[in-house]
Structures are given as structure tokens and as C-alpha cells.
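YM 10:42: Alkylation response protein AidB-like acyl-CoA dehydrogenase sequence, as discussed on the call
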Amino acid sequence: MDLTLDAEARAFRAEATEWLTEHTPARLPSLDTAEGFAAHREWEHSLAQARWSVVSWPREFGGREANLLHWLLFEEAYYAAGAPARVSQNGIFLLAPTLFTHGTDEQRERLLPPMARAEQIWAQAWSEPEAGSDLAAIRSRARQTSGGWLLSGQKTWSSRAAFADRAFGLFRTDPDAQRHRGLTYFLFDLRAPGVTVRPIAQLDGEPGFAEVFLDEVFVPDADVLGQPGDGWRVAMSTSANERGLSLRSPGRFQATARKLVNLWQQNKNPVHRDRVVDAWIGAQSYRLHTLATVTRLSEGGELGAESSVGKLFWSELDLSLHETALDLLGAEAELDSDWLRGWLFALAGPIYAGTNEIQRTVVAERLLGLPRSPR
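YM 10:58: structure's back
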């Protein structure tokens, strides 16, 4: 792994930094409100017009065909500029890589350009009331009909579903098959007849999630991703991206670590000095780990079970960064501050994208070769 940037990489980073410095909005309302969702959609439309919304995608879909290293450099510049979280992240970071791997040419041409322009924002519809981390326990079903499928069931904790346009999720198409078999990956319209979306308030009272109820919702064959019955394999492709590379780029944690160091320099409380140092080192370590992953992928490797290591690390790092900042600031920061809002979001990190308990089991069994835990 060579950490030296060549002239092309430096030029790419400089161009991104210049554009972001000039165009990044000072502050947007929370994306978990109707007003904030619309404002973030408009911001990401501006990104798309300058071809910065999906830099690693092919040009025909709105990207710049940037390699993974350049994508990481863009992400570092994005968060260093103070740019907001991406409201379209479920689509561009989770569904899109799955479409590139398992989708048809027709699906890519139809779905990727409006996703890049933030004209179609996607919700993730994985979890069900009795199937969260144990995704294979889903009960929502789909039955074949003329020209497509009819979806029925309930999804819950669906990120962005309160205001999003479409969703992706798994449904059971063969009830007699074993748990991981007989599943199919569907794409569906959240405003289609038979769909009811019920927002779920988070700790801050804003609807970052929603329940989605489906009652015989028609989905055409064209919106099956992969082959019917092969949904588990397709879904694991999505999950690997969620845990390992694209959703939590290191630029986000580096920017937060820099803010933490700046905060300590104002405070210089020696009691918390070592925690600040450890958190900063953690952010740099995650960056190096990600660069190693990029090197592996560039040489033909795959994300694989190693993505669970990254998920464990970034979710605990995020908590450490925010808890250290809150302790530095004292009790008043726990009443209302950006650090408090960041900490509330970080609390969910060990849960979503597969709980950390599940990830530790994956690491133990698949990477360390330890005996399987009782099922």
C-alpha cells in the first residue's frame, strides 16, 4: 500500500476542495424533517449538476469514473468542508453497488441517473418486527401474479422511509424453502397503492425511521433485483457495502476527530487528554484500514467477512469521539449541542448494519476459524 499521492490524485482533490469550499451550504435543517429532507435533496441535486454526487460511477450514469482512492479523497474533502450527511446514502452507497453487480442493463439505465440527481431517494426496508439482525427470519412475502409480484407484510426501522420515494428489501417467495433460501430482492414504490408508511420518532423526536405496511402491492418483474429465490446472495452484497466500505468513509471520522482536537485545545482539560489522543489515533487507523481495503479491492479482492471488522471499529469509534467531546464540554452540552445530536446518532451505530454482536460472531467464525456458536 503506497500512501504517496500522484499528481492526478492531488489535482482531483484540489478540484473537489475548491468546488466544495465555494458551494457547501452553511447549515441545512435536519434531514429527518420534511423541510430538511427537501433542502438536502436540493443540495445533492447541486452536487449532481457538477458531477460530484457519485464520483466513482461511470459517466453515463452521472459520475466521473473516479477510482476508489479518488473517491476516498473526495469524501475527505467533502467532510473537511463541513458538507452535510447524504440523504441519498441508502441508494448511492448500498443499492447502487448492488445494481452494478446484480442488476440488468435496463435497471441500471432506468434507476441510476435519477438516483444520482437525488430525484429518487431510496429507503432501506430490511428489518421486520421479528427479523432485525436475523435477516433470514423475515416473514413478509411475495406471490407471483400476471406480469409481476404482489408484496405483503410489514417492514420496520426503515431508514429515510418517512420522506423517501422508493425502497428495496427482501421478501419470502417460497415459504417452504429453508431460511436463507426462497427469498427474493424487490424494489418498490413507497407511494404505490397498498403501501402505508408510518413514521417512527427517534430520541430527538424526528422521524428518521418508519414502519412500512404492504398490502398486495404490485411490483413488475422488471423490479426484481437478481433472480427470484436468490435474494439472500444479492442482499449480502448490499450488507457488505453497508458494513465495510462505502457507507462510512473515513473522511467523516477524520473531520469529527479534528473538531474534537480543536475542542480540547480550547479546554485543555488534562483529565481527557489521553481519550482525545486515542480517538484521533482511532480515526487515522480507520483511514489506513480503509486504504488497505481499497488496495485489496484494486488487486481483485472482495470485501468479504473483513467488512465486519470495519463495522465494529467505526461504530465504536463514533461513540468514543462524541462521548469524549460531551465529557469535555460538561453538562450543558448534554442539553443541546451538535455533539449531543451526533452522539444520539452514534448510539445506533452498534445496532444498524447488523448488530455488533452478530459482527463479532462473523469475525470469530469466518476470520478466526473458531467453532460455530450454538444456533
